[in-house]
Amino acid sequence: MKHDMMEILCCPVCKSDLELKAMKEQDGDVIEGILACKKCSHDYKIENSIPNLLPP
Amino acid sequence: MSPDHKSKFSVMKTYDSIAKHFDVTRYKPWPETIKFAERLRSGSLVLDLGCGNGRNLRFLISKGMKVMGMDISVGQLDIAIGRAEKEVPDGEYGFAIGDVEHVPVKNSSMDAVIYIATLHHLTSSEARLTSMNEAWRALKPGGVCLVSAWAREQEKFQGELKYGQHDIGEDWEEGDILLPWTLKNEGDAKNGKKFMRYYHLYSEKEFDDMLEATAFKVLDRYIACDNHYAILQKTIDQ
Questions:
Q1: What angle do CA B229, B101, B96 make, to 5 degrees?
Q2: For domain B8-233, which architecture applies?
Q3: Above 70 in pLDDT, residue B3?
């Protein structure tokens, strides 16, 4: 997932902004990480560079 | 046949299971996408809801648009990503696993949405309308949306329409059918297996009524190749 995706992504449930915590990066791509919604207290995972934004 | 086939989870599992075979047979962009792209500028931000293997979004990327592909099936996304890396290496794009009823995209962020051959896989009229409202929400004022769904008035499905009720059971609603996909993938343990796909086939009136229930302005509405199509706009004053 490229960092500029953060400009458009939001929480699928409450539509709040998400906070990116990158755990593994390669050539500017986030390979593993978390997209945290503070309002919902939910962490959405990024695995194999694909964010999984299915509602919990 | 289990009534469980009428569920989001079942549609997702089927598209995961048939991803490779599906990609062999369905890789060209839809002619309607090509026509719709003429309305868009290079650099436009486009959201592809239910992007599948990315057949439509690669065309848009090749025309200079920045595209986000979203699908509920990881199997389909894996193929979409692999193909995009190979076929449009210089393009700007991103992907996410997501649900069209809960689109993870900020309000008024997209110049255009394409929502092709996906709406008819949602298993209730409420879910289908919710997804349309999500497409509207994601668009910038002035933004446009192309939506398509399979039409009920197809001769080839008259038999299936009759059987749909029996196959789905008590959850069946008029227009619901299950269509089998027979997997042809040499070396796959599930080669030859039938995977059921749920569809809700729209009548002309039902599609019009759904559009009417949204906040969209209808710019164009037509039937082509057994599909209902609409080109919609989130008007500036919205």
A1: 95
A2: 3-Layer(aba) Sandwich (3.40)
A3: no
